[in-house]
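Pasting as-is:
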Amino acid sequence: MKLTIELDRESDGRWIAEVPDLNVLLYGDSREHAIERAEAAVREIAQDRIVHGEVPPDWANAGFELVPAILSKISKKTGPRPEDL
């Protein structure tokens, strides 16, 4: 399982890390801090869902792909690029 972490930066300098598949949105003082918080939240959510039988155990090994938020929004509007297929 590979989840996307969309990264963006607020005008006040805070970083946002969003995992759209799980409706997770976290702020951090730095890019790395926001990513760390998002990854920790995803792991906690995955463990909870595994325990409750909502997802298979392989979710515990979820990987992450970092994407600037603007690229994700473009991809959602235009669909997959031919080179992504």
